[in-house]
Design a protein that fits this description.
The chain is an alpha/beta fold. It has helices at residues 18-29, 72-80, 113-123, 128-147, 167-174, 178-190, 200-212, 223-233, 276-282, 290-297, 360-363, 375-397, 411-418, 460-476, 478-484; strands spanning 2-3, 10-14, 33-37, 50-52, 55-57, 64-65, 88-90, 98-101, 106-109, 214-217, 237-239, 244-250, 253-259, 264-266, 269-272, 305-313, 323-327, 338-346, 349-357, 404-409, 449-451.
């Protein structure tokens, strides 16, 4: 069947994660007629959680940074018109946002630059000059993030060249000990890049956002629904269970899309808010130049995630108002692996969520299968991984009273749900050795085709929404973008 959307202001957005929905809201607010196509039954991608045994299980939104009044994410949410629909609670009430547990050290991440510096100096009294150098770079990143100068410039705006060196190079140059490197290396894991490969800019931007303020979405609140309601109020629409078979291109100019069900939608602008490699696979072979195809195909991705959700008795395991990280560290300060824990109360039960690396070799046996096809061996492997993680968790929380496994998802789950190659949790890896090849992914070599999502600029809610604003800038043009969007900040 065919649907005529040939008017020049029609836009199709592929994918309804935070990148697709925020881009759709921006364009709908600028007068475009926006249709969002989602292959799954419900919109939201990894922004959407789910329930098991009546309990909420988060997927990609465990906590948010910089959501205080006037801070960068709050300003984004205010402009997008979703702030009032996303009820949140502030973390750090006990002076802790994250607790890092190493074999030989426990370090608490507090709210605020000054308290963070104080905690570093208390934990590492013999490294005052190193901490001074670290804090200088971190405060530069905070200033850059708050300025939003990327709205008025290409790329990363006024970020200093020093910020694009790897964290490992900077920390080694400052003479940091292995213990201090370990503490400072944890935020790199939030974006899926080890410190030895992570540009300081990305590391410091992520860390600065959480130090500004950290928040959790309240029980029963859906970020997805807030974005969907806002889009629909602007005249946009979302069509679910419509995967994309192909992006139609003539003479290297976008003409629209064809869905798996056979629906054809004409539009002169298409935004692929899924992984760039997935967008590339939707294009005819002749649509892009070989050099562009090679560039996108060669991009390296971040690792996958294994996540376990379990039910606990809330009386024995009440809500913990901060996150806990159990971290491995080698003699050089590198972090080969870590485990993230969150305990959130839900009535007389609590939900324990554990995230760790996906360990791809375990799941390789089933990499050529899809969800629902993997059989009892796969279920047994998931159960085994969960039980191993429970044993380790008990060393932190004590005996897990009333522990019942709710669910386990693996990199294969992520791959099948959001079309992320290899089950990559954070999309394209923002490493020093692929800064150039991963730069400005918002624009493609096909006229009218743009990209959005966590791969185009930086992962996480803030990084993804920043990328959506950049994508809107390319579509609107710099002058119109400045007039309709940038000046509103």
């Amino acid at each position: 069947m065919s649907m005529d959307l040939s008017h020049s202001r029609d836009v199709v957005v592929i994918g309804s994660g935070v990148g697709g929905l925020s881009t759709a809201v921006l364009l709908a607010g600028s007068g475009f007629r926006v249709t969002v196509l989602e292959k799954n039954r419900h919109p939201g991608g990894m922004m959407r959680g789910y329930t098991r045994q009546g309990l909420e299980c988060p997927v990609g939104v465990h906590y948010l940074g910089a959501l205080g009044s006037g801070q960068v994410l709050r300003r984004f949410f205010d402009f997008l018109g979703v702030s009032s629909d996303i009820a949140v609670e502030r973390m750090g009430r006990a002076g802790i946002i994250d607790r890092y547990i190493f074999d030989d050290l426990t370090f608490d991440l507090p709210e605020g630059m000054d308290p963070y510096e104080s905690n570093l100096r208390a934990a590492f009294p013999d490294e005052p000059q190193q901490i001074t150098g670290i804090m200088q770079l971190l405060r530069q990143a905070e200033k850059h993030l708050n300025s939003l100068d990327f709205l008025f410039s290409d790329g990363m705006g006024s970020a200093q060249p020093e910020q694009f060196r790897s964290m490992e190079d900077i920390l080694t140059g400052l003479g940091c000990s292995a213990k201090l490197k370990g503490v400072l290396g944890v935020p790199s894991g939030w974006i899926g890049v080890p410190p030895e490969q992570c540009p300081a800019f990305y590391h410091n931007m992520a860390l600065a956002s959480y130090l500004m303020s950290s928040w959790r979405v309240k029980k029963g609140v859906s970020m997805v629904d807030a974005f969907v309601r806002r889009l629909e109020s602007l005249g946009g629409r979302i069509i679910c269970t419509e995967g994309i078979e192909s992006i139609r291109v003539e003479s290297r100019r976008v003409r629209g899309v064809k869905t798996v069900s056979g629906m054809e939608i004409e539009a002169p602008v298409v935004v692929g808010a899924v992984h760039p490699k997935v967008v590339l696979a939707m294009l005819p072979d002749e649509a892009v130049r070989p050099l562009y195809r090679k560039r996108i195909s060669g991009l390296k991705d971040t690792y996958g995630i294994l996540c376990v959700h379990a039910r606990l008795d809330a009386a024995a395991h009440p809500d913990i108002p901060y996150n806990i990280f159990r971290i491995d560290r080698d003699e050089n300060g590198h972090i080969p692996d870590l485990r993230y824990y969150q305990v959130r109360g839900q009535g007389d039960k609590s939900v324990l969520s554990i995230l760790t690396s996906g360990k791809a070799e375990i799941w390789r046996k089933w990499e050529n299968t899809r969800t629902g096809q993997r059989g009892p061996d796969y279920l047994a492997a998931k159960e085994e991984q969960a039980q191993n993680l429970f044993i380790e968790a008990a060393k932190i929380f004590g005996p897990l009273k009333g522990c019942r496994l709710l669910d386990v998802y693996t990199p294969l789950t992520i791959r099948d749900w959001v079309n992320s190659p290899g089950g990559s949790a954070y999309g394209v890896v923002r490493s020093c050795d692929q800064l150039l090849s991963a730069a400005l992914l918002n624009r493609s070599s096909v006229e009218g085709l743009f990209l959005a999502g966590q791969s185009v600029m930086a992962p996480g809610i803030i990084g993804t929404i920043m990328g959506s604003f950049q994508t809107a800038k390319f579509i609107l043009g710099p002058e119109r973008f400045r007039k309709e969007i940038a000046l509103s900040f």
